[in-house]
């Protein structure tokens, strides 16, 4: 569904991704793990059009989306829940969710029923239902993170990119984020997940890639990576 081939990305003259390739098949949850600065966020930003790739190829459902503007990539069916709770803070929770669905009206993909999707999003994120008329900027950090995820779901996308959905959350909310990821997976969503909690990410994912200094060093089924001695030592607390 999402295919990245030989992607190179740079900030100015400094190349950060040195030719990475990865595949996110339909209905699968794939996780990208790696140390700080390995290039995980840069990968996500290159896919969603926030950063123009230097070279390589990115396709979504068979359509070449390399180098397109973000709004065109969103219309093609890619939702990006970025690192760091990007919500429209002066708008209500409900309006943030409706904005998430906006690209469906400007693209050529089937629009589906927004009301049904709103109901489903509220069911998935009950905290947002309770606070639907609240200004998004007054939500707690954890609630804003949930809103960013829910807004991505409202695009009814082909693929959802989730960059550190658990960042900065209290442990109880981290558990909730992983429960929601499991539910999204059970619904058959296709997702690429970047997570600091590599063990938890591998527990919920089907497949994993390890990014080291801008290159994929290992990849394989999540269950296999979890037991890989090198991966364990470097990313899973040695256990
Ligand atoms: P983390 O887990 O810390 O978020 P990451 O794997 O997501 O790390 P990136 O954010 O992709 O890593 O960063 C990869 C490299 O690119 C780092 O060396 C970082 O300093 C550099 N970098 C990121 N953003 C920029 C930018 N806007 N300008 C210049 N360099 C950048």
TrEMBL record:
SUPFAM superfamilies: P-loop containing nucleoside triphosphate hydrolases. Residues 2-238 form the ABC transporter domain. GO terms for biological process: L-amino acid transport. Keywords: Amino-acid transport, ATP-binding, Cell membrane, Membrane, Nucleotide-binding, Transport. SMART domains: AAA. The keyword S-adenosyl-L-methionine does not apply. Gene3D superfamilies: P-loop containing nucleotide triphosphate hydrolases (3.40.50.300). InterPro entries: AAA+_ATPase (IPR003593), ABC_transporter-like_ATP-bd (IPR003439), ABC_transporter-like_CS (IPR017871), BCA_ABC_TP_C (IPR032823), BCAA_Transport_ATP-bd_LivF (IPR052156), P-loop_NTPase (IPR027417). Pfam families: ABC_tran, BCA_ABC_TP_C. It comes from the Bacteria. One of its GO terms (molecular function) is ATP hydrolysis activity. PANTHER family: HIGH-AFFINITY BRANCHED-CHAIN AMINO ACID TRANSPORT ATP-BINDING PROTEIN LIVF (PTHR43820:SF4). Belongs to the ABC transporter superfamily. This is ABC transporter ATP-binding protein. It comes from Undibacterium luofuense.
């Amino acid at each position: 569904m999402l295919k990245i081939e030989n992607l190179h990305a740079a900030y100015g003259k400094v190349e950060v991704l040195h030719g990475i390739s990865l595949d996110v098949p339909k209905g699968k949850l794939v996780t990208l793990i790696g140390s700080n600065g390995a290039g995980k966020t840069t990968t996500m930003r290159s896919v969603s059009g926030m950063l123009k790739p230097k070279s390589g190829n990115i396709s979504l459902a068979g359509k070449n989306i390399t180098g397109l503007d973000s709004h065109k990539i969103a219309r093609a069916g890619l939702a990006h829940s970025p690192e760091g709770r990007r919500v429209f803070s002066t708008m209500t929770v409900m309006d943030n969710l409706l904005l998430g669905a906006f690209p469906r009206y400007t693209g050529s993909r089937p629009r589906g029923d927004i009301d049904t999707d709103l109901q489903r999003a509220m069911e998935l994120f009950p905290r947002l239902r309770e606070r639907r008329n609240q200004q998004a900027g007054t939500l707690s950090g954890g609630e804003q993170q949930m809103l960013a995820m829910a807004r991505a779901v409202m695009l009814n996308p082909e693929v959802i990119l989730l960059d550190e959905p658990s960042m900065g959350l209290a442990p109880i909310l981290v558990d909730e984020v992983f429960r929601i990821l499991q539910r999204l997976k059970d619904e058959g969503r296709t997702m690429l997940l970047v997570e600091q909690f590599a063990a938890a990410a591998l527990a919920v994912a089907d497949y994993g890639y390890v990014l080291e200094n801008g290159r994929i060093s290992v990849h394989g089924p999540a269950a296999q990576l979890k037991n890989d001695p090198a991966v364990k030592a470097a990313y899973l607390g040695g256990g």
